[in-house]
């Protein structure tokens, strides 16, 4: 057996080799439901978020949330659940203006449930699916998130519970850090380590199977990085992104994102 694909380029090559000769790869679209986590307070972005939720801050005049919705829709995602909390009425008003093909479902959280808690509270959303996506709306990238679902399905015989997108970080102490073997399996995961052993970091983009839901933490609030991912290792795969990832968690990072988004991504 050959080495399983661990990068986007390897995955595309593997898919093209395994499909019938008459099939054209660019025409392949795997539709899947996605959680778009957008309920954060944006505390580190104040004063920018004093009167506007973080997910609606503009990048070159376009709300971050809209950039995510357009990219997910273009990738073939047909239903997107957005959780809301802080200044939720503004997000609801924005959703009313959405005219894309993807169906939006808004779920207001009077009290924040945490990223894993949001999934647990919306299990009905996943009925009829075998895999689903989870994306953090406070990052920006042009990475195609549906590649994770395609990788998950291509290796179903190995019983993975999920796939995590990965990137190399310049600030590994602020990220979830992984150790991945040559076959793409994540062997170790540590959220925001004091002494990082590598800079291969969690990008906040995932695809999970329904079987993984059995390991969701029951406490509320609960976090994907701290409470859920450690339960999935070593049945969790990693896929290294070729595309840059921009964090928009601070005022400086937001300004940088506006400066480089059109050229770097």
The major β-sheet equals: 7 strands, mixed
Assembly annotation: single chain
- Determine and state the CATH class: Alpha Beta
Return the domain count. Answer: 1
Q: Low-confidence runs (pLDDT<50, min 5 residues)?
A: 14-30
* Count of runs of 4 or more consecutive helical residues: 7
CATH domain topology: Spore Coat Polysaccharide Biosynthesis Protein SpsA, Chain A
What is the architecture at the second tier of CATH?
Answer: Alpha-Beta Complex
Number of extended strands: 13
Query: What order do the SSEs take from the amino end to the carboxyl end, as H and E?
Result: HEEEHEHEHEEHEEEEHEEH
Which percent bin holds the helix content? 25-40%
First-residue to last-residue Cα separation:
35 Å
General form: globular
Gyration radius, rounded: 18 Å
The amount of beta strand, in percent, is 15-25%
| Rounded average pLDDT | 87
Topology:
Layout: H1 8-18, E1 33-37, E2 58-59, E3 62-63, H2 64-74, E4 79-84, H3 88-96, E5 103-108, H4 115-121, E6 131-136, E7 139-140, H5 146-154, E8 162-168, E9 176-180, E10 186-191, E11 200-209, H6 224-232, E12 236-240, E13 246-247, H7 251-264
Parallel strand pairs: 1-4, 1-6, 4-5, 8-12
Antiparallel strand pairs: 2-3, 6-11, 7-13, 8-11, 9-10
């Amino acid at each position: 057996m050959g080495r399983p694909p661990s990068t986007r380029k390897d995955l595309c090559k593997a898919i093209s080799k395994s499909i019938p000769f008459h099939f054209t790869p660019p025409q392949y679209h795997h539709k899947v439901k996605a959680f778009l986590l957008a309920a954060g307070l944006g505390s580190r972005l104040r004063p920018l978020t004093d009167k506007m939720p973080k997910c609606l801050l503009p990048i070159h005049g376009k709300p971050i949330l809209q950039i995510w919705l357009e990219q997910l829709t273009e990738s073939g995602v047909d239903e997107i659940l957005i959780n809301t909390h802080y200044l939720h009425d503004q997000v609801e008003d924005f959703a009313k203006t959405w005219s894309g093909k993807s169906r939006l479902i808004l779920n207001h959280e009077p009290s924040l449930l945490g990223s894993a808690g949001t999934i647990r509270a919306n299990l009905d959303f996943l009925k009829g699916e075998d895999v689903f996506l989870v994306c953090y709306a406070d990052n920006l990238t042009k990475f195609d998130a549906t590649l994770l679902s395609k990788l998950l399905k291509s290796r179903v015989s190995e019983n993975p519970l999920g796939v995590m997108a990965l990137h190399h970080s310049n600030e590994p102490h602020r990220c979830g850090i992984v150790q991945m073997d040559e076959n793409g399996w994540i062997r170790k995961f540590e959220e925001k380590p004091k002494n990082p052993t590598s800079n291969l970091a969690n990008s906040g983009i995932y695809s999970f199977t329904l079987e993984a839901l059995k390991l969701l933490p029951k406490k509320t609030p609960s976090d994907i990085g701290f409470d859920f991912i450690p339960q999935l290792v070593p049945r969790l795969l990693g896929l290294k992104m070729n595309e840059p990832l921009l964090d928009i968690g601070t005022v400086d990072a937001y300004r940088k994102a506006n400066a480089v988004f059109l050229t770097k991504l």
